[in-house]
Amino acid sequence: MSQENHVNESIINEEVKEFLEKGKRTDHMKYLPDMEVIQSDVMDKVREAARNYDYSLYTEADVRRALAHDYKTPEDFKALLSPAALPLLEEIAQCAQKETRKHFGNSIYMFTPIYIANYCENYCIYCGFNCHNRIKRAQLTYEEIDKEMAAIAKSGLQEILILTGESRKKSTVEYIGEACKIARKYFRVIGLEVYPMNSDEYAYLHKCGADYVTVFQETYHADKYETLHLAGHKRIYPYRVNAQERALMGGMRGVAFGALLGLDDFRKDAFATGMHAWYLQKKYPQAEISFSCPRLRPIINNDKINPMDVHEAQLLQVVCAYRLFMPFAGITISTRECARVRDNLVKIAATKISAGVSTGIGEHVEELEDKGDAQFEISDGRSVQEVYDSLLGENLQPVMAEYVYV
């Protein structure tokens, strides 16, 4: 287990060790009674593909062969993610840029997240919201959500991503639904990054106005996943893997995928993420597919998390591999990355960028400032206008909404 590819094992502190020794953990592969079980073989296909991926077998010739293909196969995707591809990164980036411009032109979509609650029932040892982390918890009222969204809309943004901590008790489906209804007054596109749900609940939220759902699997390695998610609904690995499919079954027009790069072997996690999206795209050809490529960031009360486990060259490699493997997919770069990295990635392969970001609760209206602590430290604090101007300076076209209702 190399430090470059894996989360630092020292973050499993004495409190966590005590928790593990008490044997409180449930079977992470067994569904809980309130969880919908769907008839799908996608998870099994993804896990098998990841298990069989040995990136050490690929050579420069394999990478060049992949680049020569007009349409990239899963085998090509493996080669593009392998260490053998790093010396060819400049050439790969040029190919990815051409593919991006072919399908998206110079358009870069802009959005911002809004955190409406940070209560969480999960024990995930790398996350600032985890239920054992001593932070200031808060939840916005409907009136406060309205004020926050009105303030955000004044920036000109027309897309918003609604986030909560993963607590069904505090952030009920109905609460999130009301937030979607409020958002519909101000925004054309509404995304959700909340706890995984059953398909009927996704259908309800879609009716309330939600357009797409983002779910980070964090890591696809089931054994590693089990050691990082000690309690709560999030501990149940298969329920989380199948969340995007349930969202599509519930009528969502789009789903986004992501692994938290650095929790485990980032090459295998990136490959599993791509294959997950690829299998669902084949099964649901109408679905709008996108990727997020987050790296670890420091959190409150845990400074042992190392955000540099996956370096910039490897991040670029992953982003370019996604673009070449699934050329029509969107790719989002969050404020976990610094301005320089984000600006470089949107010039090459990314198609969506956040701006004016805060990961705390109630940060867009002065009277609500510092209502609740942040999930993680952001690295790019630029305003909407600053990101907009930066894109124009790179001859890119900022787009405030990718969807128009008629």
UniProtKB/TrEMBL annotation:
Q: Which UniProt keywords apply?
A: 4Fe-4S, Iron, Iron-sulfur, Lyase, Metal-binding, S-adenosyl-L-methionine
Tell me the Pfam families matching this sequence: BATS, Radical_SAM
Q: Name one GO molecular function term.
A: 4 iron, 4 sulfur cluster binding
Protein name in the entry: 2-iminoacetate synthase ThiH
Please give the cofactor(s) recorded in the UniProt entry for this protein.
[4Fe-4S] cluster
Entries under InterPro entries matching the protein: Aldolase_TIM, BATS_dom, rSAM, rSAM_sf, ThiH, ThiH/NoCL/HydG-like
Which gene carries the instructions for this protein?
thiH
The EC code for this enzyme is 4.1.99.19
Q: Which organism is it from?
A: Candidatus Blautia pullistercoris
Q: Which domain of life is it from?
A: Bacteria
Q: Which PANTHER family match?
A: 2-IMINOACETATE SYNTHASE
Annotated ranges, domain Biotin and thiamin synthesis-associated: 292-398
